[in-house]
Amino acid sequence: MNDQRELGELVADPAASPAPLPGPFVGKHVTLVAFDPPVHGPPLFEEIKNAPQLWDYMLSGPFQDAGAYVAALHRMLETLNLYAILDNHAPQPGLAVKGHLALMRMDLPNRVGEVGTVLFAPSFQRSIGSTECIFLVMQTAFEDLKLRRFEWKCNSLNVASNRAALRLGFTFEGTFRKHMLLKGRNRDTNWYSIIDDDWPILKAVFTKWLADDNFDDGRQKKSLAEVRQSLP
């Protein structure tokens, strides 16, 4: 009788970092710093206060004023490693807050993490910096935290977020039906991931895409997909 059973590949890689790094994470176009609600909340609120649609798929919001938003940010920080996205090219970069994102659901024993709570101001969407900030957290996840798996989860109805996940190189893994209630409505959640095996080629793609010679007056010459196709 054959009693051999498949048990999975042994993992002998280094352990994950003991805790998420505080930053800052510095790129050419953006810098990510630990979110300080009284400092970063009011200028970000000014950027987003006339865009209530940004909150359609978020767990909270919209907010009536900067004070309510700052209070909500304090609550987020109780459970999230939240980062402010600063525009390096602004006259006062420290106050040019263009959005936020979080390194969250960190399962360090299994070396898994997630990028989430992503909010970009309308003026920042579809910019070079909006792509670079995701690259910076990916780099932190795989090279500093030594994660094996990095996740992106979003409402199945959130067309923009689903499209962004695929554009950024995440692989769609399936839909968790009736995953949660969001503001009294059903939310089915789509799961995406990048694993450490994917990272070397994705890093090469982002690095080549972000190169100065890929842009002309801020307009990309090749998309991420086209850059990936051009690499061996």
UniProtKB/TrEMBL annotation:
UniProt keyword Nucleus present: no
Highest taxon, organism lineage: Eukaryota
Gene Ontology MF, one: protein N-terminal-serine acetyltransferase activity
UniProt keyword terms in alphabetical order: Acyltransferase, Transferase
Entry annotated with the keyword Transferase: yes
InterPro entries in UniProt: Acyl_CoA_acyltransferase, GNAT_dom, Ribosomal_N-acetyltransferase
Alphabetical list of Pfam families matching this protein: Acetyltransf_3
Occurrences of domain N-acetyltransferase (ranges): 40-171
Protein name per the record: Acyl-CoA N-acyltransferase
Natural source organism: Acaromyces ingoldii
